[in-house]
Write a structure and sequence with these properties.
about 325 residues, 12 helices, about 5% strand, elongated, FAD transmembrane transporter activity, membrane, transmembrane, MCP_dom_sf
């Protein structure tokens, strides 16, 4: 249709939906500061546990209100790229599976949903990892270095840098390989969208089947509402993030390039060292603000993506009709 495949429409709507979700979050100054605080908490390994309010006040005292938005620009880029790649790969893989069954439409089974999500998630993690390394460095802005005078380590706060400056700094100090720090746990975290999208598909199909049972014979099944997509996005993200959060902590430390993260040989080594040094609680630092941010953003994303997808398809249909007239 006008040279634009259904998968491409999903990719565009997914990317745009992600940007809208983050932009709305920024406008209301709610969700991005929460992920900012969560990332800082994850990386600062040996700090005492503090409330979200106390953490926010500490950042504001040191860096001002702007400190709560460190890394916002690269996060917007990351959200757009990540969702665009994911939806493109997911829909292409989904279409391939359906074609193998000689179908153009239909629902995926649970096993098929897991397989398709795994492929899309792995491709997305590899291609988007450099962006999230840049985002983590912009957000945290601290390094841990040895103190020659005391023999201990000290935290150094770096100046605020833009995306290009951060990229150049990483290249000059650590080389291109640094852009793939944390890729190990990032690949394991492919299970996050697998859990989320598989649960989303199954819950969506369940809702449709239950509503179909209530209809009279021959009546068409009404489409899911905006509220349906909003709630499905929120519930599925809450579940997926709660299960996979420890790997988010390991990934953040490895991508931040601090002393702790650099010592992790692998994702599992990171989990082991965190538990040994900080206890199981160390794996869940910052989970409160992260869950709030993730659930709110996912709910907005699913709602925005679906509305953009429908609007895009309608616009393409009108274009084809006009061209044929």
């Amino acid at each position: 249709m006008v040279g634009l495949s259904d998968s491409a429409v999903h990719a565009v709507s997914g990317a745009a939906g992600g940007c809208i979700a983050m932009a709305v979050s920024r406008a209301f100054t709610v969700t991005y500061p929460l992920v900012n605080l969560s990332t800082r908490s994850q990386v600062e390994a040996k700090t005492k546990k503090e409330s979200t309010r106390a953490a926010a006040l500490k950042v504001i005292q040191r860096d001002g209100i702007a400190g709560l938005y460190d890394g916002l620009s690269s996060s917007l880029v990351g959200i757009a790229v990540t969702n665009g790649i994911y939806y493109l790969c997911f829909e292409e893989a989904r279409a391939l599976v359906l074609r193998s069954r000689n179908k153009s439409k239909g629902a995926l089974s649970m096993a098929e949903s897991i397989l398709v999500s795994a492929f899309a998630g792995a491709a997305t993690s590899i291609l988007s990892n450099p962006i999230w390394v840049v985002n983590t460095r912009q957000t945290v802005r601290t390094t841990v270095s040895p103190d020659a005078a005391t023999g201990s380590t000290k935290k150094v706060v770096e100046k605020r840098r833009g995306i290009i400056q951060t990229i150049l700094d990483i290249l000059s100090t650590e080389g291109p390989a640094a852009f793939f720090h944390g890729l190990g746990p990032a690949l394991i975290l492919v299970s996050n969208p697998i859990l989320q999208f598989t649960l989303f598909e199954q819950l969506k199909n369940l809702i449709i089947r239950r509503r179909a049972l209530r209809l009279t014979k021959g009546a068409s099944i009404p489409p899911l509402t905006d509220l349906d997509f909003f709630l499905l996005g929120a519930v599925t993200k809450l579940f997926a993030t709660s299960v996979t959060y420890p790997y988010l902590t390991v990934k953040a430390r490895m991508q931040a390039g601090n002393a702790e993260g650099k010592s992790y040989a692998s994702a599992f080594d990171g989990l082991r060292k965190i538990v040994a040094q900080e206890g199981a609680r160390g794996l869940y630092k910052g989970i409160g603000p992260k869950l709030t941010q993730s659930v709110a953003t996912a709910a907005l994303l699913f709602l925005a993506k679906e509305k953009i997808y429908i609007a895009t398809r309608k616009a393409l249909v009108k274009t084809v009709v006009k061209a044929a007239a």
